[in-house]
Design goal:
The protein is an all-alpha fold. About 70% of the residues lie in helices and about 0% in strands. It is built from 56 helices and no strands.
Length: about 1050
């Protein structure tokens, strides 16, 4: 490999001439798999005489090639991924660490570090055993650059293993034991006030950042025995306290301004120190709140930590807060967030609440409150870009890295968990601010606290009645404020209180506030208009509001569309859904226009999204640095998903309106182009919504127009390509095509082949899982049920594919049942064809009947109504066969068919009840039940006699549940691994007895598929059976006699009940 030629190629990738640039990229891709390529790349990176951009481009290429191709061999490599030759793999491992140590820039070091992580994940320790010794040597060096490189490599080792449980790997505890004592010694020296030269305090922060980040990431899934020992936790705790308390020496200042300081290693080191202390306390060091499955492993550590460290953490955090409160020092947002998070975690445990309680009022007034003010940063954003301001405001409480979000979470924790002590005091402070002479910025903060506490306020029966006067006296006047941000927060207050059922005793007060919100929709400030619209949506539960809005609803919808186009906020599409739901009858006549308007917005957003994606795709993927070129398109994606959701709300609203089918055709023609555009756009996040629309349209129109068939075709194409994982989302629409488009399949046999190919692929493709196989079986079943008489040639393929599933090693009950259901359906489709095809398979037709009757006779063998009805009608059809057509090997079993049918009938009423209960649950509105504070006390399990006791609440119970479920799944996985090993050692039959428990739980998880209709749904099994049995008595008396005389007493009783049931038209109707 000629290094100079390669250097020129990488230099050309920076050319401004797109043709030259693309030619160079193609040539690099062409030679990428040649032996020596990686060696040459590393020589270029190491050449100090070359320009940094060229060396950086090579580093990016090296990282991408290792990440994508290091584990690929020539035997399994994909056509677009050339494997890295073995000699180059060896060269990479030999050269990567020296390259990283000598890296001339952070940009190159980052790429090489990512490369190391990939190598570690693939080869360490088995194929790279010398790595750990090398790292220990690097971090023990006297050369600072070498130590720094060693720290980077050590961090990448921990990153590669951070989500693997400590107990599941032998190497991670070894790495921790050998390297962490060295790291903590380095850290303590660098964090001391008198750092030894030649390193400066700011340079030392770079090292401390890596050291503490390494420790924090090592705690993600557990603490090793070494980390739990006092010999480890004491020096590490000391180091963490040192870093949290570090102060810049006199005369030393960070470069730049606050935005630069946030990113500086000085504050990064502090951030990771705060985060590590929080992690140790919240996850492992709080004995009263450790999840039960973890108490045995961490109980002793927690007891020591809460006594020796928690008080010190609280003390040093307060010390750090004091200068911030007095505006004497600056603190990064991430550090503020972590301090708030720690204080929030201190509220529930009795031991830490006793530390926090004396300070909570000061913290509320002087630490929480300032974070909620309308500060200079918010003012600047308001003036510069109100769309970004609105987006920040809407997401701020959900941004778990922001100080404001953590401050609000801390405030809520105080107000709910320690209500008797804190709640009225907090409200008193808010009132004191608002009734004084606050600045507009302070007034904004006080009203923001009301927004944050709105649910708590409205669930308190003492405070709730006073909120009408509060709104009239302290909120309504702000709708006329000259400050736009106060008008905005006034809208938020009314909206949030209304969402928790704000009650109005005085109708004039109600009317005044309502008109103020409606007027705010025309406010000159965009942020006010958006919040007014969102708040108005929260008031729609009030009949008086709906009546007042009805005459002008079309104008309001127009305003919402305009706002949505201005902002592309998915929150506004959710708002539109609320209006559509509340005014479905009034908006129904204009629904085609609404959908057309939504489609225009959707098409515009999708075009913008695709344009950005195309810009990103211009660079060859192996040369692309994702950390730099990644384009944030999440906001537009969410907006697109929101528009789809709104369209679905319009379609769903049709279910409540009479004669709605008359408009479905017009709406369908408007939506088909949108669906096709979406499926062609290669934005997988939108696929789910697109196929949901397909399902909704085809189900509600109950017909398949010619314009819909291209959607079927592209769905098949996508399944065979990038959307192979989306079969579950495709399935309802595909089944609707079969149910309502039978003629289309008959006229176009290629559509039948497509549907059956999806079935076969779902079962045979190694990329797909068992759930995909289940969905594929449902599709094949739909083909058989809807196209009876038109897929005769496919019966052998369907039977063989289903038999392949049943012949595999142990799998889920759902998949076995789905495969059995396919075979039953083939018999229902055409008994003679099916029996003949079954006779050609291993085990023959008799093997199938044995499996079927095991399910028929088992209590939960056929758990769903569909399974039972299908078996009943199919068995009935078998009774109608000409005796001469029955295969000889099956005749002796024919006498048990009636008994089998009755066994199925025995469980049918219970299955019907379960299905109806599931349907009721599905249709039930998700109402927000009002929670009063008495209920909340019970929920939080606060000892009424001791407000300061430990608190266990829903969150605690949820964490316990997660930990227990995690332990259960790990144990189950370990048992499966052991069972697989046992089977491999002793043979297939050795582990059969271990399957019962898994099968029992699998059966419980098989629910009725309420989203798919089949022709079987319309069959009355009772009447079908009675008609069959009556006919059998006439046509084949001997078979009738042997079937009925062989019945047990229980079966005879069931027979009488079934026959009686079939004569009761009311009960028939209920089925």
């Amino acid at each position: 490999m000629d290094v100079q030629t390669l250097t020129n190629l990488f230099a050309t990738t920076y050319s401004t001439n797109p043709n030259l640039r693309r030619a160079a990229e193609l040539e690099i891709r062409k030679i990428g798999g040649q032996e020596g390529m990686m060696t040459a790349i590393m020589q270029i990176i190491n050449n100090n005489a070359l320009d940094l951009p060229v060396r950086q481009a090579c580093a990016v290429y090296l990282k991408n090639r290792v990440q994508k191709s290091y584990q690929i061999t020539s035997s399994d490599g994909k056509s677009d991924q050339a494997p890295i030759p073995p000699s180059d793999r060896v060269a990479i491992k030999q050269s990567i660490l020296p390259l990283l140590v000598a890296a001339p820039s952070r940009a190159i070091r980052v790429q090489l570090a990512a490369c190391v992580k990939s190598l570690v994940a693939s080869d360490f320790p088995e194929e790279w055993p010398e790595l750990l010794d090398t790292v220990v040597g690097l971090i023990s060096s006297d050369d600072l650059a070498t130590v720094y490189g060693g720290l980077v490599v050590n961090l990448e080792i921990i990153k590669a293993f951070k989500y693997r449980a400590v107990a599941s790997t032998d190497i991670l505890p070894v790495v921790i034991t050998r390297t962490f004592p060295i790291l903590v010694n380095i850290g303590q020296k660098l964090a001391s006030p008198n750092i030894p030269p030649p390193i400066s305090p700011l340079e030392a922060a770079e090292f401390l950042h890596l050291i503490i980040k390494t420790y924090k990431l090592s705690t993600m899934t557990g603490l090793s025995p070494h980390q739990q020992s006092r010999e480890s936790i004491m020096p590490w705790g000391t180091l963490l306290f040192q870093v949290v308390g570090m102060q810049l020496p006199a005369g030393v200042a960070l470069p730049g301004g606050p935005d630069d300081w946030e990113k500086h290693a000085w504050w990064k080191a502090k951030k990771w120190a705060y985060g590590t202390l929080n992690r140790l306390f919240e996850r492992y060091g709080n004995p009263t709140h450790i999840p039960k499955p973890m108490q045995r492993e961490y109980g002793a550590f927690a007891n020591h930590f809460v006594e020796a460290f928690a008080p010190e953490i609280f003390k040093i955090y307060l010390q750090q807060v004091e200068p911030v409160i007095g505006n004497h020092s600056w603190m990064s947002k991430k550090c503020l967030n972590l301090i708030f998070s720690f204080f929030g975690a201190c509220v529930k445990p009795k031991s830490t609440w006793s530390l926090l309680k004396p300070h909570y009022q000061t913290l509320v007034a002087r630490f929480i409150f300032p974070q909620l003010r309308f500060d200079d940063e918010r003012k600047e954003l308001w003036q510069a870009d109100q769309v970004d301001y609105v987006r920040l405001s809407l997401d701020e409480f959900e941004d778990y890295s922001s100080p404001k979000s953590a401050a609000v979470a801390f405030l809520l924790g105080l107000a709910t968990t320690r209500r008797k002590t804190t709640f009225m005091g907090i409200l008193g402070f808010i009132n004191e601010v608002l009734k004084g002479s606050p600045s507009p910025e302070d007034k904004y903060a006080a009203l923001t606290m009301i927004v944050a506490l709105s649910e708590v306020i409205m669930s308190n029966q003492e405070v709730k009645p006073a909120m009408e006067d509060f709104c009239m006296n302290l909120v309504l006047p702000e709708f006329s404020s000259p400050y736009g941000f106060l008008r905005e927060i006034a809208c938020q207050v009314i909206g949030h209180l209304s969402s928790f059922k704000l009650e109005w005793k005085n109708s004039k007060n109600h009317e005044a506030v309502f008109h103020a919100i409606v007027k705010a929709i025309d406010d000159p400030e965009l942020a006010v208009r958006v919040q007014a619209a969102l708040s108005l949506a929260e008031t729609l539960g009030d009949e008086q509001v709906r009546q007042a809005l009805t005459p002008g609803i079309e104008k309001i919808m127009h305003d919402l569309f305009k706002l949505s186009d201005e902002t592309d906020l998915d929150a506004l599409t959710n708002c539109m859904e609320c209006f559509i739901e509340a005014f479905r009858e009034q908006l129904f006549p204009v629904s085609p226009q609404l959908i057309a308007r939504l489609s225009q917005s959707y098409t515009r957003l999708l075009s913008e999204q695709q344009a950005k994606a195309e810009t990103k795709a211009e660079t060859d993927e192996d040369l692309r640095d994702e950390s730099i070129t990644n384009i944030d398109t999440d906001d537009k994606t969410f907006a697109l998903m929101g528009i789809m959701k709104t369209i679905m709300a319009i379609l769903t609203s049709f279910d409540e309106v009479e004669n709605s089918k008359s408009l479905i055709g017009d709406i369908q023609e408007a939506l088909v182009p949108l669906i096709l555009l979406t499926l062609q756009a290669d934005i997988i996040e939108l696929y789910d919504g697109a196929w949901e629309l397909v399902d909704a349209l085809t189900f509600r129109s109950r017909s398949i127009s010619p314009s819909l068939w291209p959607i079927f075709e592209i769905t098949y194409k996508l399944f065979k390509g990038p959307a192979i994982d989306y079969l579950e989302e495709m399935l309802p629409g595909l089944c609707n095509f079969l149910l309502f488009g039978k003629e289309g399949f008959i006229q176009h046999p290629e559509y039948i082949r497509m549907a059956l190919d999806i079935f076969v692929t779902s079962v045979t493709n190694d990329h797909l899982g068992e759930n995909d196989g289940v969905n594929g079986c449902k599709l094949a079943e739909s083909v058989l049920l809807n196209l009876r008489g038109h897929v005769d040639d496919a019966i052998p393929t369907i039977v063989n594919t289903a038999q392949t599933i049943l012949s595999r090693p142990p799998q889920s009950k759902a998949l076995k049942l789905a495969a059995l259901g396919i075979l039953i359906t083939t018999v229902f489709y055409n008994p003679l064809l099916a029996l003949n095809a079954l006779g050609q398979t291993p085990g023959g037709a008799r093997g199938f009947f044995d499996k079927w009757f095991v399910a028929v006779n088992a209590e939960k063998g056929l758990p769903r109504v569909h399974d039972k009805k299908l078996s009943i009608v199919t068995l009935c059809d078998l009774l109608k066969l000409d005796p001469a057509a029955i295969p000889e090997g099956l005749k002796d079993g024919w006498v048990g068919i009636v008994g089998g049918i009755l066994n199925v009938f025995k469980g049918l009423p219970e299955a019907l009840e379960k299905r109806d209960a599931l349907l009721s649950e599905f249709q039930e509105d998700n109402s927000d039940d009002e929670l009063d504070m008495d209920d909340a006390e019970l929920l939080n399990n606060v000892d009424a006699a001791d407000e300061d006791a430990d608190v266990w609440d829903e969150e605690t119970a949820y964490l316990d549940l997660l930990a227990e479920e995690g332990a259960r799944l790990r144990a189950k996985q370990a048992a499966r691994v052991a069972k697989a090993a046992k089977t491999e050692t002793l043979g297939e039959g050795a582990a059969e007895g271990d399957e019962d428990e898994d099968e029992e739980s699998d059966v419980e998880s098989i629910n009725e598929d309420l989203g798919i209709e089949t022709p079987i749904d319309e069959v009355d099994p009772y009447g079908y059976f009675k008609q069959t049995l009556t006919s059998l008595q006439t046509s084949n008396p001997s078979l009738y006699q042997v079937n009925t005389t062989s019945l047990s007493v229980d079966q005879q009783a069931i027979l009488m009940e079934v026959m009686a049931h079939s004569e009761n038209p009311e009960e028939d109707a209920q089925q």
